[in-house]
Amino acid sequence: MKVISEKEKQYITVGNKKLELGFTTGSCAAAAAKGAAQLLLAGKAPESVDLLTPEGILLKLRPEFCRLTEDGAAVCGIKKHAGDDPDITDGMTVAVKLVPRGGSKADAGIRLTAGDGVGTVTLPGLEQPVGAPAINKVPRQMIRAAVREAFEEAGIGREEISLTAEISVPGGTEIAQKTFNPKLGIVGGISILGTSGIVKPMSRKALKDTISLELDVKAAAGTDPLILCPGNYGTAFLKAEYGIDPEGAVRYGNYFGYVLDEAAAKGFKNILIVSHIGKLIKVAGGIMNTHSRAADCRMEIMAAHALLAGADAAQARKILSCVTTDAALELLEEYGMTEAVMRSLAEKIREVITARAGADSRIAAVAFARDRVLFKTDSIV
């Protein structure tokens, strides 16, 4: 098992570079929660906290602090380490304060709240509902699992756990102003993120080199069809919807145009692209680098295709005011236009992809959202 600690760092080789792995704010929060729970149960602060990440890598993290408070709570802080990734949250401390709650067993459980520096969701369409702390699904699961593990190790069942976990990131409010959180409707701080628990550093050139190398390997193996996904969301959907091993997919990040060019140059004839609509919709506008810093006209494209499908000006303005494609999809459902707009987008994406990759390649693009297929431009699987 791979281990990341102060003494046992882990690396990946990207292109010809050796880059250090880091860990996410979600992992920091989970480890801090476990450390606080261990302090509550044993009355002694742990020197190190073990946390098994969804990636399968064991973290051994030393708390920055771990202490009891005057009100009978325990608070523990873990410093974020991004490895060689240029992450804006690198070096920040994620703290969790565990506060025991009284009450009946019916009130048992672990409630999550946002403390200083952790944002709150204020607009619909994000992963968490309006009013909830900006703590994503996987970190929530990790935090609760880490606390339960500490209690189980002490011989206490989960039905006896009744705690409030307040997650805070000192300085997070200021740092959040340098992110896209305010635009997305997350106010007051940063988000607690991560699907794998591990940060894998990728420079632009290194990522492109990796993509090209993976395509070489697939070509040599005679892979058909070639499967492309932006990242973890796409590969997870690929497995859930089609039962395809996600390890067989090439992850291209935001370099949509680059991976198509490389795939065409290396002779792939059948290509399947599986992507969340939030990424793929940009291709309908001819955008080949889908990073939000390069271009973010998702709502403009959605509104334009809604107008083509018969939406009026007022409906288009409402779509333009959305901050996520999921929120825009809710409006399309309300207008009864989902099918027509998705069909229009599929046709445009097919046109753009064909123009980019050439008519010699047969390419199918699948767009999904909320665990369902929205459209296919063609059928390969």
Main features:
381 residues; alpha/beta; CbiD-like; 2 domains; five-stranded mixed β-sheet; 12 helices
Describe this structure in words.
The chain is α/β, with parallel strands linked by helices and 381 residues long. The chain folds into 2 domains: 3-199, CbiD-like, CATH 3.30.2110; 204-376, no CATH class. Helices cover 36% and strands 23% of the residues. It has 12 helices and 21 strands. The strands form 7 sheets. The chain has a 5-stranded mixed β-sheet. It has a 5-stranded mixed β-sheet with strand order 18-17-19-20-21. The protein is globular, with a radius of gyration of 23 Å.
Indicate the topology.
Elements: E1 3-4, E2 11-14, E3 17-20, E4 22-23, H1 25-42, E5 49-52, E6 58-61, E7 65-68, E8 74-79, E9 93-100, E10 109-114, E11 117-118, E12 120-121, H2 137-153, E13 162-168, H3 172-176, H4 181-184, E14 186-187, E15 189-190, E16 198-199, H5 204-220, E17 226-229, H6 232-242, E18 250-251, H7 256-265, E19 270-276, H8 277-280, H9 298-308, H10 313-320, H11 325-335, H12 338-357, E20 362-369, E21 372-376
